[in-house]
Design brief:
Layout: H1 19-25, H2 27-30, H3 35-48, H4 54-80, H5 88-94, H6 96-101, H7 107-111, H8 138-160, H9 166-195, H10 211-217, E1 220-222, E2 238-239, E3 246-250, H11 274-287
Helix pairs in contact: 1-4, 3-4, 3-8, 4-9, 8-9
Length: 289
């Protein structure tokens, strides 16, 4: 059950309107790594979590907070669109600078949203539920969440340097701070999961019938690049992070199977089959003999 508080988690008020930046801000709202994605991702991970207690609460607590971030950013976008000009002539009459950036605004903000935020990214691509992952494996989900926070934080940091508006910057500072916490939190959750003995690397940790191929291929770095620079990496020698093997380095990877030769396909599918080549050659030859 959710309840909605009318107050925002943090202030979302710009010092002035900026329709062009409102368009850019859409990326951290409805983009692949935006707040709509992480909010839904964490909530679905929580709803799918089969372990009641701290892990389930962790997913649902953060997912709920991220819904608050969705509202903050949507509010900021709407305020940035305040008094947005409806035509180029109107923009030029208001202010030459407003006219100069008019072309950078998103017309859908006015046409579709009536001067409000939209569930789209910065180029207008609609938000998509396929952006979210809730695998049911806590370790896999925690690792993905670290990536999601890193990508989201990276985009917020880039946007921070694209505006001079003090109010916008202050909200972005808050989001950067919370993303810092969330990155560290998911990494701490990975450590906690290991300490609790619930998962081991890699995911899944207990895959059957893999010992022979794992011994041959599971810890060997294959270098397909010129030179041997990659051999200096931590991934090329020494113990693997899972504690179950030793890294090896192979600078001359070889094939382990011959070139595939596929059988003719079903003729009812009208593909070009190997067997037809000889038939065509015979027909062509018969025309000239």
């Amino acid at each position: 059950m959710f309840t909605h508080l009318k107050d925002l988690q943090f202030e979302a008020k710009p010092d002035g309107p900026d329709a062009a930046f409102a368009r850019r801000l859409q990326e951290i709202l409805g983009g692949k790594w935006g707040e709509m994605t992480v909010a839904n991702q964490y909530l679905y991970q929580g709803w799918n979590c089969r372990l009641p207690g701290k892990y389930k609460d962790l997913f649902l607590d953060v997912g709920t907070e991220e819904m608050g971030h969705v509202e903050m950013i949507a509010t900021m976008i709407t305020r940035l669109l305040e008094n947005a000009p409806l035509s180029l002539q109107e923009a030029a009459e208001q202010n030459p600078m407003v006219g100069a950036i008019y072309g950078g605004s998103n017309p859908a903000h006015l046409i579709h949203g009536g001067g409000g935020a939209l569930p789209v990214d910065s180029v207008g691509v609609p938000w998509n539920g396929s952006y979210i992952t809730a695998s049911g494996n806590l370790l896999a989900d925690f690792y993905l969440n670290v990536t999601a926070e890193a990508q989201g934080r990276l985009q917020v940091a880039r946007l921070f340097n694209m505006t001079d508006d003090p109010g916008v910057k202050q909200m972005l500072r808050f989001l950067l701070a919370r993303d810092t916490m969330h990155q560290n939190m998911w990494m701490a959750a990975i450590e906690q999961l290991m300490e609790d003995g619930l998962e081991e690397m890699p995911v899944p940790d207990a895959f059957p019938d893999s010992s022979e191929l794992t011994e041959q291929f599971g810890y060997t770095y294959l270098d397909f690049s010129p030179g041997t620079d990659a051999s200096q990496g931590r991934w090329a020698s020494g113990p693997a992070p899972d504690g179950k093997g030793q890294f090896r380095y192979d600078d001359s990877p070889r094939a382990h199977a011959p070139e595939p030769v596929l059988p003719p396909g079903d003729p009812r599918l009208y593909g070009t089959n190997p067997g037809m080549v000889g038939e065509v050659a015979t027909k062509v030859k018969s025309k000239f003999t």
